[in-house]
User: Which sequence fits this backbone?
């Protein structure tokens, strides 16, 4: 189980995340939602150990992750929000490098890389530089790199970004399958329909604070709203979306 | 409403300004460069050089022998040519339209001819500025002295001044046209993907060629040497002497023997400008479509050997990442070429006359190893490691280093061994092998084998010294410029001076087996100590460094702790 206890992060005294506490259990998919700038990616990076928190703690299987960060990283797979990759390497070279850094035995690594590249439809382009990959292809490389070592905790930050319909459907099923195999899956996305369909537990963040943390059914009942979109709009969207779109059209027309 | 002509003029002005600031590939010199500031710094640097070239006029009191004036004329011409040549190499990527130019500008209502005119105007302006700043002082002072050869007086001085600037402009046009022409011809002959592959190699080769010719070209400035029949073949291949002949012609001080040199300068300039201009013209009007259709892929297409090993898995991944980055990143490759070029220049300059080098190649030096070659070999290995250390410190795609942070599952000492292997593979071993091949081909003796053993130990020591406190994976840590520390300069100077003394000592030891063995043991102990020190420093480190930070200017003294109110670790420390 992944547990966050009163986690806070400030950037030059501006709070990005304040007293965030929630749990993501093994065997279930936790959807992490919030508008742009609400602190989702900051939380994700704190969970990975990439950035330090100002206060609070992150626990995995009951132990603070910073007690043995190296052991924790061995059990963690992460797909970041932005597809930052070493684009001078080919897809295969990048994945082999990640496997070697993760100390994966060569034979096993090659088998898994070949398999993942085939299943993600990257095999034909495996020797092409990542600089020539589309956004969706880069996203698939990130996904393959995150899953290579069979992690126990899977963190996915906007994993559907740039993926085509077929790949999105595969990823959606894959997330469910990973959870069904006992892994902790925490993922953030702006695709509310997908989140609603595959998540058993929802955490909504707004301005760095948690405004909802419950199962989707209970949230629907509590707020008397039929869809996640309605719940999200009520909790995390402050603007009149219709009015703003009208203003934009008026502005360019003037 | 704006007329189409006014719109085009405005577009030209905007594009001209943009291209002018992008003429020199400043990204290649500094990742986050402020372009206008760096151009200013370049101009100041050139003007500083110009001042240096003129500085000794003050000390000499202005009395120069005619022979010295000939040498100075040639030196100023050759220097301007090499600076323009290196400038052209730095402009390499910005001369022809690149993919970003095409993708950004093609959807906009801008004519290709406007783009072409703006680019040419920017190139001419930048080139003129570099020539002007390089000769801003020397180009005003020295023509006064050169007028001695054309009769002197105010008219003679004016004549010299015009001849000087015209020669410099023509020489610069020749160099720039040559680089443009080579690049243009290759780009027209090859498919774009192959051109992109070859282009990087060509850039480095031309860079080295300019430096090598500038340093190695013999001193033939006297009229006697210039007309000597044995030098005529060599002069055919040395353009700086063509322009010396041209200057003499324009200055009105030409001897009949220089006429062929001047003729070659005129013909060479005409050909270079025509070919260079035509290739730019063709690039703009023929290549635009081809650029959009072909991606700018450097690697790829070839099957990579995914089972290649360089030790443990970690060592293999770090070494392969380092090699691939260095081979595929234009910025790092050029930086390394620059440092190696500087090493090459220092070594060649030390080996002094090209004659000593020619003796080596043609076997006229006898069977005894010259001590200067031993010094040169030590310098090569030391500077190669230092160059690698400098280049490796520069990051590539800093934001992509999260993968190394995420996969940091071992201690710093494990990473240190991988980084050490990368240093050996990238710098120490290639430099040592080069020296071994050159030396053993020329002097296949036991003494040379002994020297190579000592050289290997020196290489190991220098690698260990470079790794001390260096807890960064190659190309992954942010870089803060201006962090040169006094001790680095000190060790750098020591690396220059110590081999000069040590090699003389070594030559004597190479003939005494027992003393030589003592020397080997001593150097091995030094290498072992350096290694122990590096490992101890790595053991004390908390983790790898991925971000360099300026040292805080204000330190928290934690005075409150003394009165029983501890500061929390999360309390911010204010830095001014």
Assistant:
């Amino acid at each position: 189980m992944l547990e966050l206890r009163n986690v806070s992060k400030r950037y030059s005294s501006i709070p990005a995340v304040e007293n965030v506490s929630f749990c993501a259990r093994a065997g279930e998919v936790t959807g992490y939602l919030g508008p742009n700038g609400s602190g989702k990616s900051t939380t994700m990076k704190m969970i990975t150990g990439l950035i330090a928190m100002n206060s609070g703690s992150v626990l995995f299987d009951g132990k603070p992750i910073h007690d043995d960060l190296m052991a924790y990283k061995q059990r963690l797979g992460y797909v970041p929000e932005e597809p930052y990759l070493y684009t001078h390497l080919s897809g295969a070279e990048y994945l082999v490098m990640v496997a070697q850094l993760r100390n994966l035995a060569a034979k096993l690594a090659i088998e898994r890389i070949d398999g993942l590249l085939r299943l993600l439809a990257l095999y034909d382009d495996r020797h092409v530089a990542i600089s020539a990959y589309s956004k969706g292809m880069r996203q698939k490389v990130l996904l393959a790199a995150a899953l290579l070592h069979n992690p126990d905790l899977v963190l996915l930050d906007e994993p559907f970004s740039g993926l085509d319909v077929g790949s999105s459907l595969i990823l959606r099923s894959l997330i469910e399958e990973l959870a069904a195999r006992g892994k902790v899956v925490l993922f953030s996305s702006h695709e509310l329909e997908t989140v609603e369909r595959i998540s058993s537990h929802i955490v909504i963040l707004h301005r760095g604070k948690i405004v909802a943390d419950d199962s989707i059914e209970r949230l629907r009942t509590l707020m008397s709203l039929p869809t996640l979109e309605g719940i999200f709009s009520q909790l995390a969207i402050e603007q009149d979306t219709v009015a703003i779109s009208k203003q934009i059209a008026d502005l360019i027309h003037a | 409403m704006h007329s189409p002509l006014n719109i085009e003029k405005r577009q030209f002005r905007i594009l001209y300004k943009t291209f002018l600031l992008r003429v020199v590939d400043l990204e290649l010199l500094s990742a986050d460069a402020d372009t206008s500031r760096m151009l200013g710094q370049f101009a100041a640097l050139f003007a500083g050089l110009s001042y240096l070239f003129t500085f000794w006029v003050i000390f000499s009191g202005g009395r120069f022998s005619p022979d010295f004036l000939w040498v100075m004329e040639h030196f100023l011409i050759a220097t301007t040519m090499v600076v323009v040549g290196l400038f052209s190499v730095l402009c390499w990527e910005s001369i022809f339209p690149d993919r970003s130019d095409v993708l950004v500008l093609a959807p906009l209502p801008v004519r290709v001819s406007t783009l072409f005119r703006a680019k040419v105007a920017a190139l001419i302006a930048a080139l003129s500025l570099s020539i002007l700043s390089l000769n801003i002082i020397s180009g005003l002072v020295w023509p006064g002295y050169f007028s001695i050869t054309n009769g002197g007086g105010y008219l003679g001085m004016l004549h010299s001044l015009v001849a000087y600037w015209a020669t410099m402009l023509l020489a610069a046009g020749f160099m720039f046209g040559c680089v443009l022409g080579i690049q243009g011809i290759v780009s027209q002959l090859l498919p774009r993907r192959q051109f992109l592959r070859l282009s990087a190699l060509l850039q480095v080769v031309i860079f080295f060629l300019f430096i090598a010719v500038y340093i190695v070209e013999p001193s033939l400035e006297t009229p006697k040497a210039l007309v000597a029949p044995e030098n005529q073949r060599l002069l055919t291949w040395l353009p700086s002497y063509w322009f010396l002949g041209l200057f003499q012609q324009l200055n009105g001080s030409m001897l009949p023997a220089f006429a062929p040199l001047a003729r070659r300068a005129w013909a060479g300039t005409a050909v270079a400008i025509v070919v260079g201009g035509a290739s730019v013209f063709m690039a703009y009007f023929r290549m635009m479509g081809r650029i959009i259709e072909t991606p700018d892929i450097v690697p790829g297409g070839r099957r990579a050997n995914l089972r290649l090993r360089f030790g443990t898995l970690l060592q293999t991944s770090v070494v392969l990442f380092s090699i691939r980055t260095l081979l595929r990143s234009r910025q790092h490759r050029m930086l390394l070429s620059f440092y190696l070029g500087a090493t090459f220049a220092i070594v060649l300059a030390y080996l002094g006359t090209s004659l000593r080098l020619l003796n080596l190649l043609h076997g006229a030096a006898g069977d005894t190893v010259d001590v200067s070659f031993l010094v040169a070999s030590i310098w090569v290995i030391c500077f190669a490691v230092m160059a690698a250390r400098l280049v490796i410190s520069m990051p590539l795609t800093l934001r992509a280093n999260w993968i190394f942070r995420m996969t940091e599952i071992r201690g710093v000492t494990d990473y240190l061994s991988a980084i050490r292997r990368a240093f050996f593979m990238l710098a120490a071993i290639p430099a040592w092998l080069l020296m071994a091949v050159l030396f053993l081909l020329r002097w296949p003796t036991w003494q040379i084998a002994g020297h190579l053993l000592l050289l290997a130990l020196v290489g190991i020591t220098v690698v260990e010294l470079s790794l001390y406190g260096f807890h960064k994976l190659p190309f992954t840590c942010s870089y803060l410029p201006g962090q040169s520390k006094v001790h680095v300069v000190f060790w750098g100077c020591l690396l220059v001076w110590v081999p000069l003394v040590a090699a003389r000592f070594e030559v004597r030891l190479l003939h005494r087996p027992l003393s030589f063995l003592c020397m080997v043991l001593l150097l091995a102990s030094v290498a072992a100590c350096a290694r122990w020190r590096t490992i101890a420093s790595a053991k004390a480190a908390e983790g790898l460094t991925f971000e360099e930070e300026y040292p805080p200017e204000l330190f928290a003294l934690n005075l409150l702790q003394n009165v029983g109110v501890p500061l929390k670790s999360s309390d911010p420390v204010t830095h001014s």
